[in-house]
Every structure is written in C-alpha cells, then in structure tokens.
Predict the 3D structure of the following.
Amino acid sequence: MAAGPRNAEPESTRSRMTPTPLTGAVMAPLYGDQQATALLSEEAVAAHMVAFEIALARATEAAGLTETGSADAIAAALDGFDADLAGLGQGTASAGVPVPALVAQLRAACGEAGQALHWGATSQDVVDTATVMAVRDVLDLYADRMSALIGALEQQSAAFGDVVMGGRTRSQVATPITFGMRIATWAAPLIALEAELPALKDRIARVQFGGAAGNNLAVAPYGADIAATLASELGLGATVQWHGDRSAVMAVGAWVGRLTAALAKMAGDLILMGRSEVAEGKAGKGGGSSTMPQKSNPVASEAIVTLNAYVTALTPMLAMAASPAEERDGGRWAMEWFALPQILIAGAAALRHGADLAATLQAFPENMARMLDANGGAIMSEAASFALAVHMPRAEAQTLVKDALKLVNGQGKTLTEALSEIGPDGIDWMQILDPRQAIAPSQAQAKAIFANRTNSLEETK
C-alpha cells in the first residue's frame, strides 16, 4: 500500500489541534477566559443576529413597510431558534459573511412570515450590531471584575499602609515608601479606566442600520425611525449609521490595551518583588518547576505580561481595519473579526489573574527592612540632605552627606553615626533618618488615589 504525503495528517489529529492559547483545552485555563469566550462565541453572536432580525421585523412593521402581524409571527417561529453554525460557515465561505445563510435559515423556519425578514438591512448592519451587543456584554463583565479588583486593592493598600519598603527608580533603591502606596499606584490607572467605561460602553453599544450603501435607500424616508425602534428593541443607542466609522471599535481596543498595560505594571512589579534575592513580596498560587523543587514561579503575573503583549500586538489590526475603502470594504472589515474577540478575551483573562493577585498579596517586612538597613541606611540620604539644607547652602549639604557616605562605605558606620560625627550639632538624626517617616506621606498619597475613585463613582450616579 502506497504511503500518503509526508505532511498529511489524519482528520482526527487535525480536529484535536489547538487553534489558539485563548480557547484550546491545554492553554486556555491559563490564557483564556470561559465567561468572555462564551459571550463572544459564534453561538452568542448568532443569537444576537437573530435578535436583530426579529427587532428589525418589528421596526419595519411599525413603519408600515411590512404586513401587520408579521413580526409577531416571526418572533413566535424563532422562539428558541438555534442557527446551524455549519451551514453559516458554508455560507460565509461563499458570501464572505454569514448573514445570507442565516436569513435563509430564518425564512425556512418562519414560512410565509419570513418574507418580512431582513427588510432594508445589509449584512454589515446585522454583523456590526450583533458584534456590539456581544462587546457590550463583555464590557459589563469587565465592569464587575474591575470593581471587585479595585476594591480588593484598596483593602490591601490599607492593610499594608504602614509596611515600609525601599522605593525603586530606574531599578535602583531610591527613598522609602510603603507597600500600601505601591498597591495604590497599581490601582490608579485602573480607577481612571473604570471611570471611562460607562462612556466607552455607550459609544460602542449603538445600533448599526444603513442598508446597502449607508443611506437607507430601500426604506427611505423611514431609516431613522427604523434605527430608533431597533435600538429600543435591542437595548442599544440610536445613532446614524457608522459602518464607515470604526473609531468606536478602535476605542475599545485601545481601552483594553491600557487595561492590560496597567495590570502588567502590577504583575511586573510583583515579579521583581518576588525574585529570590529580593523576596519582599509575592502574590498568586505560584507554579512548580518540572526539575527544581525549590521554585515557585509567578505564573499568574507572567500570564498577565504575556496577555498584555498579545493585546498590544493585535491592536494595530483594528487601526488597519478603520480605513475602509468607499462605502464598504470586506477585506479591512474582516480584520476586526481576527483581532477584537481575541483582545477582549485576553483582557478578561488578565483581569481574572489580576483579581487572584490582589486577593493573595503577601509582604515580607523582614526582607524589606534588610533593604532599608543596607549600606548603613543610605536610603535616607535625600532626607539628610534636606535636613542639612536648613542649616547651610544646599550644595554644601549634599557634599556633607556624600562625605558621610564615605564613612559609611569605608568604616562600616551607619548614616546616622556618620552624620552625628561630622554634621552640625543639634540635629536629631535618629528621627530624621527613620524610614518610618515615609508612612504618613505614603498613606496620604494612597488615600488621594482612592478618593479619585470615590469622586468618579459619585459623579456617575
């Protein structure tokens, strides 16, 4: 028996291949999100397309364009209707969109009343409206998760509000802060994004109804009335047709990109804090190594970093899709189908991991204290310079601190001891150089960050 081509694979093998880490059985538990995937699934979007067609039947009947009673007949016939997705796939392969095949299925289910289906609409009206309905549902999921995440970070910020640690700038130890302030800093961009979310949802959740070329010619002069009824039936905003204006889609992608970037900031800091030689804090359940029993890898944090990179890489596709040629451009429009669902699922997964990190934050104050005490307490050098500047020109103050640091490095003295030896009399160096001086201003900064959220929530009521 002759052998087949070397690269041929049995159908059973091909069907088991993982198409994407966001949805495959092996990788999706880490990189995917079941809830977001369900909201964006082909089944969910098809159900939204069916809802559009039922709502359109009601709108055209209300405008007097279709027979009285046809909408009720259509709604009754399609109650519990499940689209044949395989059939939609065959239709997409032929028409480039699933709508013609869907309308054929719906008409077959509705009988004579089906003649009132899809009156004055075009495929993009159906797909765009169904898509934004799915996006609206995902943004509701985001809103719930963000509220819980920011609330958890606020609680943790308060809990660690007096835990002093060394702040880092450009990877080097700078001045003392509190762990509570660092947590608040993680929350700050999330608070801003949460405040923007209602307006973003309103911007994207708009009905699309323009007909073949965007001017509703087939239903003139009732296009605006039909769009308004459609919007009311579907719980969307009413607006002029927007199939040539993809700025709202781009705005959603950009917003999710900023969200994952904010979460990656938190995740990246936790990775650095958890390094073996630092061990100042950690979060997440950790992951073991296949060969090194001592390791506990920051899996959730690493996943967020990966997901942020993925979202960042996909976002330009939405920009490329945003300049369609003339009244409709099937090639550019389709780019959104490749990018937008993946961006939304990745963002939801990052939020899921962020919630886990916030809930499991740990600090190791003894290791933080070791860094505060390193090099004789040199972390308080800035405070020493400003304290001396009250008694002498600032340049002289800085020179004196540098001289004191030479004693610290050369003779093993603490900064307190060195300044007590060479500095002016009458200065309480024990108090000035106490890292706990950072607690009050750090707590004030953290409270100010979360006050921004309180103000934003009150404004939206």
